[in-house]
């Protein structure tokens, strides 16, 4: 009794669903496996190792199952895996929401989906997951190489989608060719959409904190050694295109931030009130240029002195910094005008000046003593500034990439003991000395110089061009730029880092070294290509789109116009494509054509002739219904059969056939 | 307005039959996304949102490329049907309760993979244009003429994202023979009471009847039995060798006409199976005794169409 009950229960449980989706064939399974691999592979270097290993294990398991035609693991086991993986992801990323945990979950779902791949519908899920994974690869890398890799992967993914359709069984090569062909047909649509789809500046909502990785470059505080760390990198900070001749290198001080607060070791940035317009209107000689800034995850924008306009969505701070309203997290392009000879009104709030004098007590006593000496000796701030510059020149300080470690009383150590330092030591010491002498001063951070790329004419400013200098407040003249480094290592300013640091080649980034000219040549070219890619493809945002469309003759392009153009262009493309696709080359030979003429003539007599009949049967039926033409009909059918099925019909036969049909007019 | 609606309706759902050969043109072909296509579109939408949110230029590129691929899928799927010619072929009759097969010839000047054919109410069968004639099954309910229901020809090839389909209404019909009775009493000649089944010469075929346990094994009609679901038939033997049997409706047992026709059908089939000459009398119709499949079909047609 119990056994029977159990049996019936088991039977019910085992019963298959009434409508079963079509199961996957072996070829389809392999294709989906290939698609999943193609989508996961580019992500490996960006996800944690354990995640890659988990995915690889899942894939290997699946490959084994396909190979041995084994049974898929039961659902409950997969469910256990999913839960375990979610927990692991939550532990790794401290949560399940956000970009990186989301991606990790996608990777896991992909690997597990492969293990429950049963029907064509599961196959579609894998394809769509693969598309998503390909997209997420662009979070990390949008270079030309990444685009090419994603393109290759997409061909495999679409080939897998093709394989899901029951059809002829092509070889893998044909399948890939078909996929590539379809994608090639989609390219024109992509181009139109890319150019004309109304672009929106993201993000649409607040992004999770992990959306942006650490960016190299300047930071909001400067400790001894922090700049020399930055200059170890030859990553690009920003690119500039000057309209007209570029200014000489000694004028290229790209101002970014001020460092006001000093605690004896670190200089720190302090936010000052901001406004949305410039407090002055600049005039005089102007330099126009366009800056393409690599994302640095900071607010400051770079400009030469003195900025004559503000880029959109930015504001101007009291210490003359241009600050974007949100941190720069994508490549940003802006137009700038600078007036190098113009100085804004020499007015500064007493509070700001007080801040520019503040020093911690009890540090650097020797420097302090020297500075206080200047204060007693000279009456004006300008004279003190001159004295400080002379003092620095007399110390004969060496400019070096590897300064000795100076921790306590760093300024004293630099000026009186080691006399070797990098630009941050110079700027820090100089500012300290000025403040100690009662002259308001601040450290200014940014980049100095840059290098013109002869291939495309862009000025490239790299991280190793990072520099700090000093601004001093001189009554009546305003903030005056002083570069103490320039006095000790003038070649740093005229010829860049590589000329200023001699004998330390090995510590410079490759590109900054003098004797690697050929390498720089190659790099110039690669750089020009990468820049063109950045400018025209990656940097194609709302602004660029408007510029481009106005250049193409669309005055004041707005989203309505773009949509209208988009729709009509897509329509034209679709029409052209459809016509192209339907263009049917019907290549009928003469025999068939003549036979069809004969059939048409018979059809005019409205005979009862079913379409499935062969020529002989047809002739018999037709002859019976048209007795007066019976002979001609039989003759025509006989010569048609002869022409069609004989081994090598002669041309005379064809001529006779033609003559018969020409004469046949029922 | 009303006329316009009428015209529109006629355009969309024409009531008249299509004259063969039917060329599938863009006016006749409908295209809509499949479930997979909808999923694909929603994925693209998500990808677009992602690209906007993270300002991924290449994300836009990928999304737009896939969107373009969707458009390509529409055209390609449509192209797989467009220009195809349909022509009714030679239909295969069947018995009531079984299936008849309507034949359709597919002609195209280039390959048309992964086509699906379906008669309204029937199963879906796969086809491609290179196998020129396809037989499409349809369950036959009653004897007589079965007119060809609307034929749907569809395809989702190549990407499965959209489905293109078209209808063909051919003025075609296929014969449905009566369902043969599963078992039939042995034929008894009218007026020939003397020739009862027991008294027959065992060498002459007389008819078939269900197998009884007492029957000799060599009297089992194996061929005829093989076509039965279960059970066996035994041969019965007539007195006179070579004499044709006359099956007559008026002397057929059975309470209703359909029962009688079913029994007649069974007799005809069984007689054909053992090559026994037979004739058929149905009211005014008289088909002389003969053998062979043409004769069989003539008799079955008469049985199918008898009113």
Features:
heterodimer, A: 666 residues, alpha+beta, five-stranded antiparallel sheet, 18 strands, elongated, B: 307 residues, 2 domains, 6 helices, 26% strand
Q: How would you describe what is shown here?
A:
The complex is a heterodimer of chains A (666) and B (307). With 666 residues, chain A is α+β, with helices and mostly antiparallel strands. Among the domains of chain A are: 21-165, no CATH class; 590-663, no CATH class. The radius of gyration of chain A is 39 Å and the shape is elongated. Chain B is of the alpha+beta class. Chain B has a 5-stranded antiparallel β-sheet with strand order 2-11-10-6-7. A 4-stranded antiparallel β-sheet of chain B has the order 1-3-5-8, with no helix packed on it. In chain B, a hairpin with a 4-residue loop joins strand 6 and strand 7 (124-127). In chain B, helix 2 runs antiparallel to helix 3 (57-81). Chain B is elongated. At the A-B interface, helix 6, helix 7, helix 8 and helix 20 of A face helix 2 and helix 3 of B.
Brief write-up:
Chain A is 50% helix and 12% strand.
Topology overview:
The complex is a heterodimer of chains A (666) and B (307).
Chain A: H1 2-14, H2 26-40, H3 49-68, H4 75-93, H5 99-114, H6 120-137, H7 144-163, H8 172-196, E1 221-222, H9 226-230, E2 236-243, E3 253-259, E4 261-262, E5 267-268, E6 274-275, E7 287-293, E8 300-301, E9 314-317, E10 322-324, E11 332-338, H10 350-355, H11 365-377, H12 381-395, E12 398-399, H13 410-418, E13 420-421, H14 423-436, E14 441-448, E15 451-452, E16 459-462, E17 466-474, E18 478-482, H15 484-488, H16 490-495, H17 497-500, H18 517-538, H19 542-551, H20 559-582, H21 590-604, H22 615-625, H23 630-645, H24 651-663
Parallel strand pairs in A: 12-13
Antiparallel strand pairs in A: 1-5, 2-7, 2-16, 3-14, 4-5, 6-9, 7-11, 8-10, 9-10, 14-17, 15-16, 17-18
Chain B: H1 2-12, E1 22-23, E2 30-33, H2 35-53, H3 57-81, E3 85-88, E4 94-95, E5 99-107, E6 115-119, E7 124-127, E8 133-139, E9 144-147, E10 151-155, E11 162-168, E12 173-177, E13 207-210, H4 222-226, E14 233-236, E15 245-248, H5 257-273, E16 278-282, E17 285-290, H6 293-305
Parallel strand pairs in B: 4-12, 15-16
Antiparallel strand pairs in B: 1-3, 2-11, 3-5, 5-8, 6-7, 6-10, 9-12, 10-11, 13-14, 16-17
Helix pairs in contact in B: 2-3, 5-6
């Amino acid at each position: 009794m119990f056994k029977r009950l159990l049996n019936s229960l088991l039977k019910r449980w085992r019963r298959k669903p009434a409508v079963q989706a079509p199961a996957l064939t072996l070829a389809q399974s392999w294709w989906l496996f290939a698609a999943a691999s193609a989508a996961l592979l580019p992500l490996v270097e960006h996800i944690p190792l354990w995640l890659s290993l988990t995915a690889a294990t899942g894939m290997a398991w699946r490959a084994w199952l396909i190979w041995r035609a084994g049974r898929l693991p039961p659902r409950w086991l997969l469910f256990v895996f999913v839960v375990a993986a979610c927990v692991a992801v939550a532990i790794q990323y401290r949560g399940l929401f956000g970009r990186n945990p989301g991606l990790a979950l996608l990777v896991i779902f992909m690997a597990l989906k492969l293990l429950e791949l049963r029907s064509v519908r599961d196959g579609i899920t894998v394809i769509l997951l693969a598309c998503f994974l390909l997209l997420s690869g662009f979070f990390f890398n949008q270079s030309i190489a990444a685009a090419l890799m994603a393109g290759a992967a997409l061909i495999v993914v679409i080939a897998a989608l093709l394989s899901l359709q029951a059809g002829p069984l092509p070889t893998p090569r044909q399948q890939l060719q078909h996929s590539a062909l379809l994608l090639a047909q989609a390219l024109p649509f992509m181009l139109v959409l890319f150019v004309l789809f109304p672009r929106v500046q993201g993000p649409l909502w607040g992004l999770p904190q992990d959306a942006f990785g650490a960016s190299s470059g300047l930071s909001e505080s400067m400790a001894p050694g922090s700049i020399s760390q930055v200059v170890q990198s030859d990553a690009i900070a920003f690119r500039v295109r000057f309209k007209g001749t570029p200014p000489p290198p000694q004028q290229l001080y790209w101002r970014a931030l001020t460092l006001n607060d000093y605690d004896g070791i670190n200089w720190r940035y302090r936010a000052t009130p901001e406004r949305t317009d410039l407090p002055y209107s600049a005039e005089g000689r102007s330099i126009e240029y366009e800056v393409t800034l690599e994302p640095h995850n900071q607010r400051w924008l770079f400009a030469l002195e003195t900025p004559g306009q503000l880029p959109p969505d930015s504001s101007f701070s009291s210490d003359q910094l241009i600050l974007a309203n949100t941190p720069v997290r994508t490549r940003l392009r802006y137009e700038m005008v600078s007036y190098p000879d113009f100085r804004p009104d020499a007015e500064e709030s007493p509070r700001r000046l007080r801040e520019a004098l503040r020093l911690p007590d009890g540090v650097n006593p020797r420097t302090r003593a020297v500075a206080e000496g200047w204060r007693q000796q000279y009456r004006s701030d300008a004279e003190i500034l001159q004295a400080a510059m002379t003092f620095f020149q007399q110390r004969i300080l060496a400019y070096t990439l590897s300064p000795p470690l100076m921790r306590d009383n760093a300024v004293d150590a630099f000026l009186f003991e080691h006399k070797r330092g990098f630009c941050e030591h110079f700027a820090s010491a100089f500012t300290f000395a000025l403040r100690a002498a009662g002259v308001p001063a601040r450290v200014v951070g940014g980049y100095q110089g840059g290098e013109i790329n002869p291939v495309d004419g862009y000025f490239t400013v790299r991280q190793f061009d990072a520099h700090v200098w000093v601004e001093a407040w001189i009554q009546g003249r305003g903030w005056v730029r002083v570069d103490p480094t320039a006095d000790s290592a003038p070649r740093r300013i005229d010829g860049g880092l590589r000329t200023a640091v001699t004998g330390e080649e090995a510590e410079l980034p490759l590109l900054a070294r003098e004797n690697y000219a050929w390498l720089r040549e190659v790099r110039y070219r690669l750089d020009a290509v990468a820049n063109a890619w950045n400018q025209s493809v990656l940097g194609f945002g709302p602004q660029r789109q408007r510029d481009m469309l106005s250049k193409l003759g669309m005055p004041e392009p707005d989203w309505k116009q773009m949509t209208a153009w988009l729709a009509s262009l897509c329509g034209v493309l679709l029409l052209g494509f459809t016509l192209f696709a339907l263009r049917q080359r019907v290549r009928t030979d003469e025999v068939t054509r003549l036979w069809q003429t004969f059939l048409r003539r018979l059809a005019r007599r409205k005979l009862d002739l079913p379409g499935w009949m062969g020529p002989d049967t047809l002739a018999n039926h037709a002859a019976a219904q048209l007795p007066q033409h019976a002979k001609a009909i039989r003759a025509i059918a006989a010569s048609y059969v002869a022409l069609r099925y004989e081994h090598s019909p002669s041309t005379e036969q064809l001529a006779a056939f033609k003559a018969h049909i020409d004469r046949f007019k029922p | 307005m009303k006329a316009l609606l009428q015209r529109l309706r006629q355009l969309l759902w024409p009531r008249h039959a299509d004259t063969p050969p039917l060329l599938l043109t863009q006016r006749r072909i409908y295209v809509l996304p499949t479930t997979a296509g909808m999923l694909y579109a929603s994925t693209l939408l998500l990808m677009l949102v992602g690209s906007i949110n993270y300002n991924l230029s290449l994300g836009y590129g990928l999304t737009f490329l896939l969107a373009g691929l969707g458009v390509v899928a529409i055209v390609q799927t449509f192209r797989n049907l467009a220009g195809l010619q349909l022509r009714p072929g030679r239909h295969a009759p069947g018995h009531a309760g079984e299936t008849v097969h309507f034949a359709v010839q597919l002609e195209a000047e280039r390959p048309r993979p992964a086509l699906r054919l379906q008669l309204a109410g029937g199963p879906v069968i796969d086809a491609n244009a290179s196998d020129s004639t396809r037989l499409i099954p349809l369950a036959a309910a009653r004897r007589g003429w079965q007119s060809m229901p609307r034929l749907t020809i569809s395809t989702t090839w190549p990407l499965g994202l959209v489905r293109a389909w078209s209808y063909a209404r051919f003025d075609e019909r296929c014969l449905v023979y009566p369902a043969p009775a599963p078992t039939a009493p042995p034929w008894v000649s009218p007026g020939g009471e003397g020739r009862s089944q027991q008294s027959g010469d065992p060498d002459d075929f007389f008819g078939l009847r269900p197998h009884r346990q007492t029957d000799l094994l060599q009297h089992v009609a194996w061929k005829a039995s093989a076509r039965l679901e279960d059970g066996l038939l035994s041969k019965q033997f007539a007195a006179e060798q070579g004499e044709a049997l006359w099956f007559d409706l008026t002397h057929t047992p059975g309470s209703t006409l359909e029962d009688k026709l079913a029994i007649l059908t069974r007799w005809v089939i069984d007689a054909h199976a053992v090559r026994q000459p037979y004739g058929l009398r149905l009211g005014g119709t008289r088909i002389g005794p003969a053998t062979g499949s043409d004769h069989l079909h003539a008799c079955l047609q008469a049985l199918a169409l008898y009113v």
